[in-house]
Amino acid sequence: MEDHEPAFGQSASEPSSLERGLHVARALILADLHASRVAEADIVSLVEEAVSHRRWWVEQWPEGVVFVAGLVAQDVQDALLDRYGRWPLCPVCGGGDPHALDVQPELGEDPQWVCSETSTAVARIGQLGARL
Question: How far lies 7's CA from each of 10, 13, 18, 54, in Å?
Answer without folding.
Answer: 5, 11, 11, 20
